[in-house]
Amino acid sequence: MKDFIVVSPNNDEESQLEKENRLLSRQVAEEGFVLLYNNGVLPLQERTVALFGTGARMTVFGGTGSGETKGRQKVTIEQGLKNAGVKIESSLWIDEFDEKYKRKRKAWKDDVEEHIRGYHLWNVMDMFREIDKHHFVFPVGDEICEKHVKEECDVAIYIVARQAGEGGDRKLEEGDYFLSRTEVDSISFLKKHYKKVVVLINSGGSVDCSFMDREETKPDALLYIGQPGEEAGNAVADILLGNESPSGRLTATWAKDYYDFPGADEYGFLGENSKEANFKEGIYVGYRWFHANHIEPRFAFGYGMSYTTFEHCYLDVKQKGTKLVFRICVKNTGAVYSGKDVVEIYVRKPSADIYQVMKELAGYGKTKKLNPGEEEILEIEVSLKDLVTYQADMHGEYLLSGEYVFFEGTSADNLNAITIAVVQQACLLKKVEPLNSCKVKFDEKIFENSFIENRELPLLEIDTSVFDSYISEHQSEGVIPSNRVLNLTDEELCTMLVGGSVVSYGYVRTPGTVGRTSNILWKKHKLPSINMADGPAGLNLTPQSLITKGGMEKSYLHLPENWSYGFLPKMEWIAVGNPKRDRMICQFTTAFPSTTVRTQTWNRELIYKVGDAVGREMKKYGITLWLAPAINIQKNPLCGRNFEYASEDPLLSGYMAASIIDGVQHLGGVGVTIKHFCANNQETEREYMSSNIGERALREIYLKGFEIAIRESNPWSLMTSYNKLNGTYTANHNELLMNVLRKEWGYSGVVMTDWGAITKGKGDYYQCANNGNDLIMPGDGSAVKQLLNDLKTGRLNRKAAQISVERILRLVMKSDYVG
Ligand code: BGC
């Protein structure tokens, strides 16, 4: 197809948008870092440091796979400290490490090349992806010895770095979840040779911190920087030197012992059958589990330190419609540093005849930057809709009668009871039909509630009449096929149900997009195919490429790194373009901090700005759908994709997602795709495994974040997951999609499969549209052929197919490229 437009610029100058987004990326990183421990050494007064550890120069900016980040220029920790005027005394060690790493990688690559003839192209690419993922686990031998130590330097900074990404889980091994022998020995060596030792954890998720328990390896400060995006080094310098005070708070519990996590010994590859994941802990996920079992975590959910101190004073609570508004006065009581503080509100719901968790997050807020002595009154909203309890026997979600005890504080383990809200009569908020597919019963232990009642607390009676006209019964999302759809030929109908594949020629040409809708309606109806791009931490597009006159996408100057091995260079003449003849396309997108780091800011306004920034880049490069945010629950620290997810808590995940969605969608013409719906909590066997979950846990934990995001922000589309839910692939799951998503939540956006989730041997194409999953992605001719056949035989319901295409076309019509 020659009928296409290119909207990306053809020069590579840094634009104003890029500059602004770079600053935003840095601010988000700084607010997202969590200071886990500090005996007073931070912020550093010194301007000379020794820097060690794999992440010093090989800083991990983002994860691997579809969640990988691009970014024009990424600032390593070494570079960031230098930019801030810090003298680094350990360049010898860093250079040596670099050399050793490169030698090892080359030896490995040579070895692959020697055996490459037998491999298929994709195997080779996969192998190189694998090595990228685990490159820090490579036994590089980064020992530190006397020759690396300079007398005149008092401070050593050690960076523990880890990489992970989709397609594999992290390992419960030294060098991944545990520190390696070399890392532990290095910290102990540094403790002996330096007056002050600061450890930074540069990883998508938690690592075992038992080195904190031994005097010989306990650092003076511990900072979790996650995957900080392109401004990593500059942000690290700002925090270490005290230009900014840390204000990030953990969004997942860090355990003292891995086996403290629920179902730890059965997780993914650790269990006997990695294809059956039984979510036996029910609603007791993350801190809910730790509370119920009285397990002290290493670092609690919601925890994080600052360079200054704050005092909270609870003022009052008022009901405003369906919300409670808590007012809390926060004062910076320190004398030196300005800083922001987070206030967390938790609730204990009544538990007369149903088990409840002890405390769950109900709302939160963050102050502006407060100078010493300054105060701010925060108004924190708690939606009564989020306080419901699912009751299967009564077919509904209820605001139960009884006392709702509210707490405020600075982590799930540091809370004060502030008020009791009373519901006199149970109030039904939503009628729902119990899900027959969720009959799995696990022994959900009923935990004793250790809370001591405090009658001194102020009481507030909740007026439930605000819900009189709210109760939602099964509703229809109301999509009926228009004439435009009714008049389509069978071929057009079935083709529209299938994506336009990764390599097809879309209407808007944006190299690096991973999928698009079909272009079959372009010629006749001028309805273009629209682009979709990955990159939860910033659009994952090809930074520079060439487009031929005929519309072929080619590489600029050379093949991508993981293509250029073995026999592949022979393909260079086809795949690499000619800059003199072909059109140059430049797409430098911003690498933002990972979803986890962003969520650790607990700052909804800031996250809205990230959405807005990504949305503007989408418009610039011709992307209509962003394949983000992901709302899966961080159930276990070994999940390889945790960095793409927000939290172990559904409420926090849902509201942070809502902010980023609003940030994108307020621009108009561009939208998001929330994913992976649902219970995609492990990467091991992700395309074949079943997440087996009881209904209450499904609704209150694994669906809740999605429900909040849809209710608050109405995302344009949603992606189902690779896994099965209680034995059925989610893209074919009638109860999940038709009952819960479409009827209960009234969702009328486009639902698409994950990439290749439904193919031969994994679910059925016709069961997608029949059950509310509109689009099969990325799509290919064989899926269309199969659907045409299914339409003829009646297996594919024509009406369902028409409704799906109607939803797809409504989305296409909203894009910037129609009209
Ligand atoms: C991932 C999705 C991603 C898609 C497209 C899949 O492998 O699971 O999150 O959006 O690929 O790249």
Overall description:
26% of the residues lie in helices and 18% in strands. It is built from 20 helices and 30 strands. Helix 2 packs across helix 6. The two termini are 21 Å apart. The chain is α/β, with parallel strands linked by helices and 819 residues long. Strands 1-6-5-4-2-3 form a six-stranded mixed sheet, sandwiched between helices. Strands 19-20-24-25-27-30 form a six-stranded mixed sheet. The model has no long low-confidence stretch (mean pLDDT 92). The protein has four domains: 35-90 and 141-244, Glycoside hydrolase family 3 C-terminal domain (Rossmann fold, 3-Layer(aba) Sandwich), CATH 3.40.50; 287-467, Immunoglobulins (Immunoglobulin-like, Sandwich); 483-541 and 592-813, Glycoside hydrolase, family 3, N-terminal domain (TIM Barrel), CATH 3.20.20; 544-586, no CATH class. Bound molecules: beta-D-glucopyranose. The site of beta-D-glucopyranose has 8 residues, from loops.
Structure summarized in a few sentences:
The chain folds into 4 domains: 35-90 and 141-244, Rossmann fold; 287-467, Sandwich (Immunoglobulin-like); 483-541 and 592-813, TIM Barrel (Alpha-Beta Barrel), CATH 3.20.20.300; 544-586, no CATH class.
Largest sheet: 6 strands, mixed
Strand content: 15-25%
Bound molecules: beta-D-glucopyranose
Give the radius of gyration.
27 Å
Helical amount = 25-40%
Described by its quaternary structure, the protein is single chain
Q: Give the helix tally.
A: 20
